[in-house]
Amino acid sequence: MKLALPRPVTEGSRLAIVAPAGPFSEDAFRSGVAWLKQRYDIVYNPDIFTKMGFFAGSDDRRLIELTDAISDPDVDAILCARGGYGATRLLPKLDLELIREANKTIVGFSDITALHATWARAGVRSIHAPMVAALGNAEESLRSRWIDALENPASTRSWELERMDCDSGTSADGTLIGGNLAVLAAMLGTSFLPPLDDAILFIEDVGERPYRVDRMLTTLDQSGWFRRIRGIVIGAFTEGDPGPDGVLISEVLERQFSSVDFPVLHGLSAGHIVDNEPLPFGAPARIEGDRLTINW
Fold this sequence. Notes:
The chain is α/β, with parallel strands linked by helices. It has helices spanning 26-36, 59-71, 96-102, 113-121, 132-135, 140-151, 181-186, 210-222, 249-257, and strands spanning 14-18, 41-43, 77-80, 106-108, 126-128, 157-160, 162-163, 171-180, 199-206, 231-238, 264-266, 279-281, 284-288, 291-294.
């Protein structure tokens, strides 16, 4: 499954910012907006700063905001203010045909994994990358890669990583999908999962103890995920300190993937880290030896 390129974005394009999940720091948001406005026409609703517990306003507020951004013919792409929690609550009311016809990329990560899955189901590419509230303080090198991912979705990107599976000679081609492991696992048993067949699955997470990472991966395996995908790319797993047993997340990953019959790469700098590498979900990807290449 190779997805078509999204609606073009260039300098001067209109980008809509939405908050489909949790609330955020207004100062960090405005700092990110100030940087974005140097290159793009930025729009957002005044009620984006609404806070309702751990949500950025009610489900209706967040759904209307996102749907309006998808529908607006003058908006070329959609940026998420922050992750947190709440995007999965919107999934039943999102219109796949509307998303497909608009063909606009959406940018974000963490809880936005739920929307990446929806965009993939609609056949539209998306970008796993830093969000508005993090861009204000981001390094210039990361900002440049962020712009390149948004404006040049067909450009080839390649990383030398490390193999984790036992057969380093195997290779795989597929469509890059995935995101936050906990969000993907939370969607099991629903109709909102991304298309898995012939995919290269990217995973990352933050704040999950090793035994919980093991539990989630075991559940994915027992649900048949690893029989459908072509390969796995592992990003950053941070703030997951071992418990009294002393088991590390790296040991969990090694145990889960060292003997699988598909290629597994680890060490990609993407996830809940400062240098969060932008990744074009929906793009063709190849694992060959220790190298991941996207848009080959």
